[in-house]
Amino acid sequence: MSTRLAYQYVVLRCVPRPDREEFLNVGVVLHCQAADYLDVVCHVDAERLHALHSGIDVDQVREALSFVELVCRGDERAGEAARQSLGQRFGFLKAPRSTVLQPGPVHGGVTHDPARQLEHLRERLVG
């Protein structure tokens, strides 16, 4: 019987116009301490983003998501955040810091396979 592992995740939201409080889910970050796992999956639907705000810079959104990927991987191009432990990196990523790309609330669960769970969350929450 395989082990059930606790995990936490946040949905990354693109908020083109914070004054309207409209957003589109564009990614999910999942952290599983027991499996030493931290990863993100992203999907940017430019057409849907432009429907929320015709002037949005989609490349800027993609660049912000690329930074999240670098932090998850521990890539030195992400600076000090990438040099931290996985738990600290997740803490960094779940903290709001941008008006356009914002993390939602932290949720949790249990899984046998963090990578498969992340893909399931992407399909269910991002598209």
TrEMBL record:
Pfam families for the chain: DUF3037 (PF11236)
InterPro entries named among the record's database cross-references: DUF3037
Top-level division of the source organism's lineage: Bacteria
Name of the protein in question: DUF3037 domain-containing protein
Organism: Nocardioides zhouii
